[in-house]
């Protein structure tokens, strides 16, 4: 997997590195990078490219941008949509008989309510399983997690459930201790998940990460 930022011909090979930290000194370059990344992730034009095995990959479907781990939400639209799809597939394949019984019971229930009302009423008798899941707040549930665990779980879910291949984080070293950061990197390396972390100042390098520094003159130094 090759990640490219065309403005400065920055090219990062993600095959052999679980986490790559890009240190961008210039505020102007940093905001241009973020602006174009957000555009690409949201399906608009930008100067971020992604190549997989020599073929261009869809950035909006392949990259997730996490600008603040404090705002991580398991009700992310991508996650919930996929969760509901998988739940409906199970209901309509592995549990089709029980799904039919549930549908009949619900319709009968509302028919009996309608019969007891003093006026004529009607209702839609087509059962929407996704609507029922939403009504019951059917969602991912991970309680009592600290921030590092929450970030790891969130990345894992998007990778496994939605097929996201690359995660771009912002200022990750601002939020975590060295031990927490080390544990995050070890977990992501074990799961072979690629992460690009963006920083605007230097930090102590973790042995598991590759660092690409872009100075004020747009010179690129890798170490």
> What helical percentage do the residues reach?
40-55%
Distinct helical segment count: 8
| Number of E-type strands | 10
SSE class: alpha/beta
Helix-strand pattern, N to C?
A: EEEHEEHEHHHHEHHEEE
Strand arrangement across the biggest beta sheet: 6-7-8-3-9-10
How do the helices and strands line up, and which of them pair or pack?
Layout: E1 2-5, E2 10-13, E3 19-24, H1 27-41, E4 48-52, E5 55-56, H2 59-62, E6 63-66, H3 77-93, H4 96-116, H5 129-135, H6 147-162, E7 166-170, H7 172-175, H8 178-190, E8 194-199, E9 209-214, E10 220-222
Parallel strand pairs: 3-8, 3-9, 6-7, 7-8
Antiparallel strand pairs: 1-2, 1-4, 4-5, 9-10
Describe the protein:
The chain has 223 residues and is of the alpha/beta class. It is built from eight helices and ten strands. It has a six-stranded mixed β-sheet, with helices on both faces. Strands 2-1-4-5 form a four-stranded antiparallel β-sheet. α6 (147-162) packs parallel to α8. The protein starts with a strand and ends with a strand.
Concise overview:
The chain has 223 residues and is of the alpha/beta class.
What are the key terms here?
223 residues, alpha/beta, six-stranded mixed sheet, four-stranded antiparallel sheet
């Amino acid at each position: 997997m090759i990640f490219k930022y065309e403005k400065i011909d920055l090219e990062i090979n993600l095959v052999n590195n679980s986490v790559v930290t890009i240190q961008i000194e210039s505020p102007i370059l940093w905001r241009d990078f973020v602006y174009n990344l957000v555009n690409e992730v949201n399906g608009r034009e930008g100067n971020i490219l992604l190549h997989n095995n020599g073929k261009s990959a869809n950035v909006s479907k392949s990259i997730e941008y996490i600008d603040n781990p404090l705002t991580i939400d398991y009700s992310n639209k991508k996650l919930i949509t996929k969760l509901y799809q998988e739940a409906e597939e199970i209901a309509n394949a592995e549990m089709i008989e029980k799904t039919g019984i549930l549908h009949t019971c619900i319709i009968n229930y509302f028919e009996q309510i309608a019969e007891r009302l003093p006026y004529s009423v009607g209702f839609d008798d087509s059962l929407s399983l996704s609507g029922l899941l939403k009504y019951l707040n059917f969602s991912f549930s991970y309680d009592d997690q600290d921030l590092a665990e929450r970030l790891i779980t969130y990345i894992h879910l998007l990778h496994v459930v939605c097929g996201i291949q690359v995660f771009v984080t912002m200022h990750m070293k601002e939020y975590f201790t060295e031990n927490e950061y080390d544990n995050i990197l070890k977990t992501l390396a074990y799961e072979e998940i690629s992460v690009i972390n963006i920083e605007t100042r230097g930090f102590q390098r973790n042995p598991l990460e590759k660092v690409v520094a872009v100075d004020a003159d747009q010179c690129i130094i890798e170490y």
